[in-house]
Specification:
Elements: E1 2-4, E2 9-14, E3 17-19, E4 26-38, E5 49-51, E6 54-56, E7 65-71, E8 78-82, H1 86-97, E9 101-105, H2 109-118, E10 134-137, H3 140-144, E11 149-152, H4 156-166, E12 176-178, H5 191-198, E13 208-212, H6 217-221, E14 226-231, H7 235-245, E15 250-255, H8 258-280, H9 285-305, H10 310-313, H11 316-327, H12 332-341, H13 346-351, H14 358-374, H15 378-384, H16 386-395, H17 401-409
Parallel strand pairs: 8-9, 8-11, 9-10, 11-12, 12-13, 14-15
Antiparallel strand pairs: 1-7, 2-4, 3-4, 4-7, 5-6, 13-14
Helix pairs in contact: 4-5, 8-9, 8-11, 8-12, 8-14, 9-11, 14-16, 15-16
GO biological process, one term: glycerol-3-phosphate catabolic process
Pfam families: NAD_Gly3P_dh_C (PF07479), NAD_Gly3P_dh_N (PF01210)
EC number: 1.1.1.8
Length: about 425
């Protein structure tokens, strides 16, 4: 028996309804919990309260749905992947290799035709063949009909618009797994907050999970060993999704610390741009290693301030993903930084880039978001977080990479933290 299970609840009035699908090989029992309260404590990056000397937020308890799935075989389970880019394509292969029925929801009709006719994505990673159980469509309703899991694999900056459009078509209580990393520029919100406002709002609460870790899409498609982590406030839900993904080449760990996973996933891209600049300027491995290490320290302190765990930041979604993004040759964010270090402007780089480097938008958002969260000025925040806050001025042309590095090296000695 596979189980989507949320937090433990107290029920004042336990009413259940059972919904039977026409396909008797798959029976979906949905327990609708009325007037229940969660035992778990959740944290968010909004509306802070003081707790144990840290800033945190206690989220208003919401109704909880516990979904039990009786599955005879993965071929009876439909999974919808939103986004036909590199990582969406890679995720469809991971699930497809396990035998799940995967439907890629994409806008480009050429990608739809390429996947359905040739088993290849003609735009991204086109040298790789997808499993026969993977199909594609541009029709939102058919893509989400009877799905048991939704995987969101779009850039953060376009996520809100798409999620608002697809939300009415996602079946009740079906979990959403996000692979997107970054801060929305307009609202300064993480993906878990965007999902809470769009697909898991007050009218339809559903489990939300987040996948992160060192995982280049191309290496996943090459079937090279990969290890990631799935975060969800419900460990049972995280474990179920981990079991669905896990194979001999794709190892999945679990955690309930979605705050730490989300913060690391966003901020590591800024560090990677900085590391790329150092490499492009030819500053040597000493400088790059020092820059990345201090960047990880800044990232950890932000995560802990928001309620995340230092354990998460030292794990796959923290230093693991940071190392890959900073040193891996396939890293889009590192490449942007490298070209900046070589003297190109950001506009020149973006004109010749096919895929999105999330760190560019995130770096600009963090300049406004982080001082506000810390309740201080940019100048004072810069003393504590010089790497995270120095990348945006370089991207905008207000500072050269050389000037940025000189500022870092000119800072007075301090105690390592």
């Amino acid at each position: 028996m596979l189980t989507f299970a949320g937090s433990t609840v107290f029920l004042d009035n336990n009413k259940t309804r059972t919904f039977f699908k026409t396909d008797l090989s798959l029976i979906l029992n949905t327990v609708v919990c009325n007037r229940c309260r969660l035992l778990q404590k959740q944290f968010s990056a909004r509306n802070w309260i003081r707790e144990d000397g840290k800033q945190a937020r206690e989220v208003t308890p919401q109704p909880n749905f516990v979904v039990f799935l009786k599955l005879e075989t993965p071929s009876n389970v439909k999974i919808t992947v939103i986004g036909g880019g590199s990582f969406g394509t890679a995720m469809s292969k991971v699930f497809g290799m396990k035998g799940y029925q995967v439907c890629l929801l994409v806008r480009d009709p050429n990608i739809v035709a390429g996947i359905n006719q040739d088993r290849r994505n003609p735009k991204y990673l086109r040298e790789f063949t997808l499993p026969d159980s993977v199909c594609a469509t541009s029709d939102v309703e058919s893509a989400l009909e009877d799905t048991q899991l939704v995987v969101h694999a779009l850039p953060v900056q376009v996520s809100r618009e798409v999620l608002e459009k697809v939300s009415p078509f996602i079946p009740t209580a079906v979990p959403v797994l996000s692979t997107s990393k970054g801060l929305e520029v307009t609202s300064h919100k993480f993906m878990f907050e965007l999902l809470q406002e769009t697909v898991s709002n007050s009218g339809n609460k559903r489990p939300l999970a987040f996948l992160s870790g060192p995982s280049f899409a191309k290496e996943i498609m090459q079937e090279l060993p990969t290890a990631v982590v799935v975060a969800c406030e419900s460990l049972e839900t995280a474990s179920l999704i981990a079991n669905m993904l896990s194979s001999s080449i794709f190892k999945v760990f679990t955690t309930t610390d979605f705050i730490g996973v989300e913060v690391a996933g966003a901020l590591k891209n800024i560090i990677a741009i900085a590391a790329g600049m150092a490499e492009g300027m030819g500053l040597g491995m000493n400088a790059i290693a020092g820059l990345v290490t201090r960047g990880c320290s800044e990232m950890r302190r932000v995560a802990e301030f928001l309620g995340g765990s230092s354990v998460t930041l030292s794990g796959l979604s923290g230093v693991g993903d940071t190392f890959l993004t900073c040193f891996g040759p396939l890293s889009r964010n590192r490449t942007v930084g490298y070209r900046l270090g070589k003297g190109e402007t950001l506009s020149e780089i973006l004109k010749t880039s096919q895929e999105v480097a999330e760190g560019v938008a995130t770096a600009k958002a963090v300049v406004e978001w982080l001082p506000a969260v810390l309740n201080t000025t940019y100048t004072r925040a810069l003393v504590r977080f010089p790497i995270l806050l120095s990348v945006a001025p370089i991207l905008e042309g207000r500072l050269t990479p050389e000037e940025g590095m000189q500022q870092l090296m000119s800072m007075p000695p301090t105690v390592e933290d």
